Amino acid sequence: MQEAMARVRALTCWSGPVEPEIIKGGITNANFRVADCGRRYFVRIGDDIPVHGVMRFNELAASRAAAECGLSPAVVHAEPGALVFDFVEGRTLAAEDVRAPAMLTRILPLIRRCHREMPLHVTGPALIFWVFHVLRDYGHSLRAGNSRHLDILPRLLGIAAGLEKAVGPVEIVYGHNDLLPTNFIDDGKRIWLIDWDYAGYNSPLFDLANLCSNNEVGPADERHLLETYFETPVTGDLWRRYQAMKCASLLRETMWSMISEIHSTLDFDYRAYTAENLARFERALGEFNAL
Predict the structure, then answer these.
(1) Is the sign of the CA dihedral 210, 243, 239, 102 positive or negative?
(2) Alpha-carbon Rg for the chain in angstroms
(3) Number of alpha helices (DSSP H) and beta strands (DSSP E) in the chain
(4) What is the percent of the chain where pLDDT is above 90?
(5) How far is 149 from 139, CA to CA, in rounded Å?
(6) How confident is residue 114, by pLDDT bands cut at 50, 70 and 90?
(7) Is this model's pTM higher than 0.90 or not?
(8) Residue 275 pLDDT more than 90?
């Protein structure tokens, strides 16, 4: 963390010496609050993370496009491994906040705007986030890293292959792909969507499933969300495809944590996070298989 703090202090955008304040809770990047010339800024420090497919050129392009769409605060400075944003005064949401029906009603238009408007503003090369490729790649990385989870890896990858077939052909939109509750900030007037590490083209089913799986949205609210997004009643086929994607979302979060157990240097209990998400994945898989 001291190295990250030194990088923040050395950024060329400051008018003079600054004293960064650590913002706890990040599980991919080191985050700081900085005051300079009467304004406050949010600083993210993080280099490319190839094992997670995180490429900072992509995050920067997505962050700038999101600001143009009114989804995220403005990017005020960028250097290799560092992004500086306007600081948003507000409350970071928890899962119980996100899954409240009134909050889902406020969040869904942000997801729609991301899917429909972001492609008009993203410049330069753009990535695709196909969760099943991510899972296969995680499998290679877990083998190379001699993960403690190698005994269950063949089963997980076999399940992933079946889920990919169940999802079938998809529409392509521009997705956020990491709709954890901490990536939403409520400033009292509006909701901000932040952290575009995993942004890229994807199926809308993934963001919808990712939102609901990460925040434990109940089945009735899931159906309402799908009906509102697609503006059509939920058929059995759509529900099954969505549930397959929800399982894939939970498996991705599980295997993301398995990878982080090996490679991350952040102070976070990835072993516990792996166990929590693996249990949630198994529950969702049981529900999917019962359809």
Answers:
(1) negative
(2) 19
(3) 10, 10
(4) 93
(5) 10
(6) very high
(7) yes
(8) yes
